[in-house]
Each structure stands twice: as C-alpha cells, then as structure tokens.
C-alpha cells in the first residue's frame, strides 16, 4: 500500500513548502525484504523446479541470394523444396496497398465520436498509470 | 516455497481432481521431434492425467517429418476417458519472420533498431501458410497479413520494397557484431549478479 503520512514529520513539513518536491515525497515504509530472502531460501530447498530452458539453436539461411529469391524457413519439413517468391503480378492488388510503416498511435486527427479515439484514450491512461506505479514501486508493498 | 510453475501445476491438478469430467486446456510450444517427459512439459501433462510417455511418442511421431527443433504451438484438450486431442499448429509467425529475414534474434529495442528486412511477398507467403491455423479460420487473408505486419513491427523487422543483395549482406554482418556485443553485455550482467548473490 502506498503511504501518505499525515504526521508532523519534519521532511513532510518541509516538502509542503517546496512545491516542486511535494509530489516526490512519499515516506517509505521500512519493511523487511521478506520476498527476496524467501525466494533464495526456496531455491535452495526446491529440487530442480522447471530448470533453465535449453536454448535450441535453429539453423538460419545464410545465403542472402536465397533469402531474396524465396521465403526461407517457410517449408519446415525435412524434405521438400523452398517456397519460391513469385512475380509481382501474381500477388493480389491489396497486398501492395498494405501499410508497412510502424504505426504511431496518436489522438490527433481522430474523431471524438469514434471508438478508436476512446480505445486510445484508455490505452494512454493505462500506460500513464503503469508509469506512475513504476515510479512509486519502492513505496508500495 | 513452490515456484510459480509448481503452483500452477498444483492448481491445475486440483482443478482436474475436483471437476472430474471437466478438463483444462493445454497450450504449449513444443520443439518438433523433441518432446520429452521432462519439465516444463511433463508436469503440465501429468496434471491433466495424460500418459506422458505416450504423448511424447505420439508427438514425436507426428513431427518426425519436420525439421528438428522447429517450435510448434500445440493445443491439447483432454476427454473424460483420459484420451487427448492434440492439435499442432504451424510454427509461430516470429519464427517464420526470423527465418525469412535470415536472423536468429529479433530486435531488443523494436522501433529504435532494425533487426532484419523482408518484403511484402514474404509476408504474403507467411500469411498463406498461417491462415491454415485454426486460430485464423474464417479470417480473410488481408487481415492475416495485417496481423503479421504487426508482429514484424513488434520484433523490429522492417518491410521494404525489395531487398538488395549487397546492401542486405552488409546489414546482416553489422547486425552480427551488434548482437555479439549485446550478448557480451548480458553475460557480464549475469556474472555480476551471480557474484553478488
């Protein structure tokens, strides 16, 4: 729980008069690092509970010419030909009109009546909450 | 103190025991031909009362024709009489994208760095294959392509008009050195942590 001490703590009193520091001062509660110790103790005790995953190194096509000519890795069977990329005209028209840019979500240009606008508002509000939680993480038990 | 996964297994086992005929659905990514009774797969199966050895044998048999180690998303549902239905999907989009771009690792900071490049044709081919998955049933190919574009953006893969041979070769070599440096840094951090504890 976040702590807001309404006491006659000197620090708190000073903070009240320094506007830019007011929001920064939350008195941290001293607590024992139970979680950390518990985990370490637990690790020693518990026997190999789902150990570290062994990384499987998968072979990747190294020849750039092959990467360009066909879609490597698409045929994941042991035997069989690589999937070759076809000519431009053999692909549907809508493919070339797809938006390939990395989408940058913003509220500009969106109508307040549309659903997307409010989805985005919610998204930003959540992101903001998350950032605040992160900032005050050490004061929250 | 039980590990997170241990707790999960216990919860599932309890649920199965309590519900009787009802069973819980298992989602797992298993490398082709490499299903083992070891954790994490073993306990997950055991908690649902599936014969682990038989499952592994069955899975490895079904995936014997596939390249070893290819990650395969699997969905297992269990019937009341302890028989299971195993549905194996195509490998994940991230796997296909990495293979198509000729890279082993995605970007650590997607949006700020580029990990690889593919063309729209690659995206189309991947979409064509992935649309066979049960999750994409009834979804038009265009939507599937858009989904894959989203995945590509989230792992730092850029979509270009054409991939030029020499340019891309240079790019891949540069990426190699960058990734080596990043791995060294990570190793150093790991070692530091070990020493501290």
TrEMBL record, chain A:
Pfam family, one: Ribosomal_L37
GO molecular function: structural constituent of ribosome
GO cellular component: mitochondrial large ribosomal subunit
Main location: mitochondrion
UniProt-annotated location(s): Mitochondrion
Keywords: Mitochondrion, Ribonucleoprotein, Ribosomal protein, Transit peptide
UniProt family annotation: Belongs to the mitochondrion-specific ribosomal protein mL54 family.
Name of protein: Large ribosomal subunit protein mL54
Gene name per UniProt: LOC106171770
Automatic annotation (TrEMBL), chain B:
Domain Large ribosomal subunit protein uL11 N-terminal: 27-84
Recorded GO CC terms: mitochondrial large ribosomal subunit
Key word Ribonucleoprotein present: yes
Swiss-Prot/TrEMBL keywords: Ribonucleoprotein, Ribosomal protein
Residue ranges occupied by any Large ribosomal subunit protein uL11 C-terminal domain in the UniProt entry: 90-159
Classification via HAMAP family: Ribosomal_uL11
Record-given protein name: Large ribosomal subunit protein uL11m
Lineage, highest ranks first: Eukaryota, Metazoa, Spiralia, Lophotrochozoa, Brachiopoda
Name of the coding gene: LOC106160656
């Amino acid at each position: 729980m976040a702590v807001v001490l309404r006491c006659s703590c000197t620090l708190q009193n000073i903070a009240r008069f320094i506007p830019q520091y007011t929001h920064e001062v939350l008195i941290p509660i001293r607590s024992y690092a139970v979680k950390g110790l518990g985990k370490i103790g637990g690790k020693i005790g518990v026997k190999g509970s789902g150990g570290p995953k062994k990384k499987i190194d998968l072979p990747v096509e190294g020849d750039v010419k092959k990467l360009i000519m066909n879609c490597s890795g698409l045929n994941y069977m042991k035997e069989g030909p690589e999937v070759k990329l076809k000519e431009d005209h053999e692909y549907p028209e809508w493919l070339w009109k797809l938006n390939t840019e990395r989408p940058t979500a913003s509220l500009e240009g969106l109508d307040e009546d549309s659903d997307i606008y409010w989805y985005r508002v919610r998204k930003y509000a959540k992101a903001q909450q998350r950032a605040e939680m992160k900032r005050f993480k050490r004061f929250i038990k | 103190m039980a590990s997170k996964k241990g707790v999960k297994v216990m919860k599932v086992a309890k649920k199965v025991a309590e519900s009787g005929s009802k069973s819980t659905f298992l989602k797992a990514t298993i490398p082709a031909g490499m299903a083992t009774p070891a954790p994490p797969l073993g306990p997950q199966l055991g908690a649902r009362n599936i014969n682990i050895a038989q499952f592994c044998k069955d899975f490895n048999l079904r995936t014997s024709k596939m390249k070893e180690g290819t990650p395969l998303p699997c969905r297992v549902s269990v019937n009341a009489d302890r028989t299971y239905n195993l549905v194996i999907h195509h490998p994940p989009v991230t796997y296909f994208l990495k293979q198509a771009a000729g890279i082993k690792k995605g970007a650590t900071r997607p949006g700020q760095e580029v990990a690889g490049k593919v063309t729209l044709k690659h995206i189309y081919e991947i979409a064509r294959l992935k649309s066979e998955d049960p999750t994409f049933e009834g979804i038009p190919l265009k939507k599937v392509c858009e989904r894959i574009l989203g995945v590509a953006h989230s792992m730092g893969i850029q979509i270009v008009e054409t991939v030029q041979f020499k340019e891309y070769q240079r790019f891949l070599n540069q990426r190699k050195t960058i990734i080596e440096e990043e791995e060294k840094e990570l190793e150093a951090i790991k070692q530091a942590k070990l020493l501290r504890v």
